[in-house]
Structures are given as C-alpha cells and as structure tokens.
C-alpha cells in the first residue's frame, strides 16, 4: 500500500510540483492550502509524512507543527518544512516545535525525495 504524504502550502503551483514529484515516486498525496486547512483534513487517517511551508495565511507552518504534535494520531508524524525562510531563528523555532527537517525553496525534486525516503514513517 502506498504511503500518504500531506503537502501544506498556500501556493497551488508549489503543491502541484511537489505532488507530481511524490506521486511519480509512488506516494499518495493529500493537500492543505494552509495550516488551518491541513488540520481540518487530518481526520485520523494514516499520514506518513507532512511537508509544510512556513509562511502561510490563517495558520503558519510552525503553528501547524505545534498543533499536529498535540494530536495523538499524528504526534509522531515527521514534518519537513519546505520554505523560503532561511533565518537561523526560524529554523530553531521550527525544530523546537517538532519539525524534523528544513528545506529551502526552490527545491530540487531528487533532493526532496531523498529527504522524504529518509523520514517517511514505516
């Protein structure tokens, strides 16, 4: 059975590009347009990895990570931040919230898939 990865980004084109990379590698993909939308879509189904932007309307990525970590079904789900944010302070904040990796946009699909394969839950 395919592993499910959720992509959370306010850019539809970025969700599409990441989604194509993941689907071509055999993953199922869920999408959220921001943190609040993503939380609504996390309804208990198994999600093996979450890839999230940091700067989004309604709920930013770091707040999303904090909320995900409060949900018993997703407490251990790894989160990768995929963002243009490169400030050390933001990275530290993301790590403190529970993010497992930090990747900068524009991303390179093989590099993204390598990170996904390393972090995706069994």
Automatic annotation (TrEMBL):
Residue positions where 4-aspartylphosphate is found in the record: 53
Keyword Mitochondrion: no
Alphabetized SMART domains for the sequence: REC
Pfam families, per the entry: Response_reg
Transmembrane regions: none
Stretches of the chain forming a coiled coil according to its record: none
Keywords: Phosphoprotein
Origin: domain of life: Bacteria
Domain Response regulatory span(s) in chain numbering: 4-120
GO biological process: phosphorelay signal transduction system
CDD domains registered for this protein in UniProt: REC_CheY4-like (cd17562)
Mitochondrion found in the keyword field: no
UniProt protein name: Response regulator
Lineage: Bacteria, Pseudomonadati, Pseudomonadota, Betaproteobacteria, Burkholderiales
